[in-house]
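Lab notes, practical 5.
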Amino acid sequence: MSFAKDQLLPDEKLIAVTHQHPLVLLRVILLNIVAAAILIALSYAFDRYWIMLFYAVPAVVLFWEILVRQRKEYIITNRRVVKQQGVFTITSFDASLDKINNVFHEQSLMGRLFKYGNVGLETASEQGTTVFHFIPSPVKFKNLIVREREERQAGGKQGAPTARLEVPQLLEELASLRDRNIITAQEFEEKKKSLLDKIQ
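Output from the prediction step:
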């Protein structure tokens, strides 16, 4: 199951989805190449082409690893960072942007050459530090998280005072509409509750 739009929360937008770098498959690809070479040599040496049937084993391993990589997703939205993985059993990890204290990346020399690395999140939750391994273009991925976190924090700081200032005025206007019988008392109470919920 791939991360789908129906998994998004209300007012949540998908920013980026990525998988581990293709180099995670290097070991199993080399295994397949070596296995194929050995089995071809054996089939010629013993004149038994049925020996090539044994190639099904490394081929199945390669297919499985490709599937596992495809199902391991790293997602950034405007509200959280998600890691979802699993072929038959799906597991996921969520880190709210509001609870992320620090974002860092790690790249070895090989990582810099082939453009992969690890991205870590330090959160205020019980999970503490969480590391996402073998991320392609880790600096870009990290910067996306930082940008979304800062935009969310800036929106929260600017939006709350504005809402608090506007609510009393809106309540007065609603009361005026009720007094003039433009809206019913029940509609007034419902809209009043909705406005008060926004500033709590």
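Observations recorded by the TA: The helical segments are 26-46, 56-71, 109-114, 138-179, 185-198. Residues 75 and 146 are 14 Å apart (CA to CA).
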